Amino acid sequence: MRSTTISEETTTTLPVIEFVTPLPGFPRHRSFMLVRLDDDGLLYELASVDDPELRFVVVPPAPFFPEYTPEVSEESLELLGITAAEVDQLLTLLVVTVGSTPSRTTANLLAPILIDPVRLRALQVILAGTDNPVRAPLRSAA
Fold first, then answer.
1. pLDDT score at 46
2. pLDDT-based confidence at 142, cuts 50/70/90?
């Protein structure tokens, strides 16, 4: 895995994604860029535009949790400004907690990040009525 930091050149080439509500615990940070960290497209960094030290490792769920299909509420769709017919265009990402070893690395299945790649708007949702864990062991990519 190569390390990537946001440079001035990167900010002019990558689109900026705006969170419609701040990520929990980060009320002043709404603008982020999604930076691919590997050639396979399995590992990304969600990096704050305003604070280069604020970064989250995120992954698409399908390679690690193929059965994961979060239900998106009407309220979430409204916040993102999309209709139920457009829900399939959303990119779903899971926040990863990197462990001391790969077997200790986990993904948050309870609060996925939804990104509308057309409007460049995002939202982290907490899924209601589910027993999805906050720290699910990250499985090997298929």
1. 97
2. low
Q: Which long-range contacts (CB under 8 A, 24 or more apart) does 18-23 make?
A: 18/120, 18/121, 18/122, 19/121, 19/122, 19/123, 19/124, 20/79, 20/80, 20/81, 20/121, 20/122, 20/123, 21/79, 21/123, 21/124, 23/56, 23/124
Q: How far is CA 21 from CA 18, 30, 76, 122, 140, in A?
A: 9, 7, 10, 8, 32
The tokens 């907690």 sit on which residue? Answer: 97
**pTM, full prediction:** 0.88
For residue 53 the two structure tokens come to: 């030290």
Strand locations in the chain, DSSP E? 17-19, 31-36, 44-48, 55-59, 91-97, 106-107, 113-116, 121-124, 136-137
pLDDT in tens, 43-78: 999 999 999 899 999 999 999 999 999 999 999 999
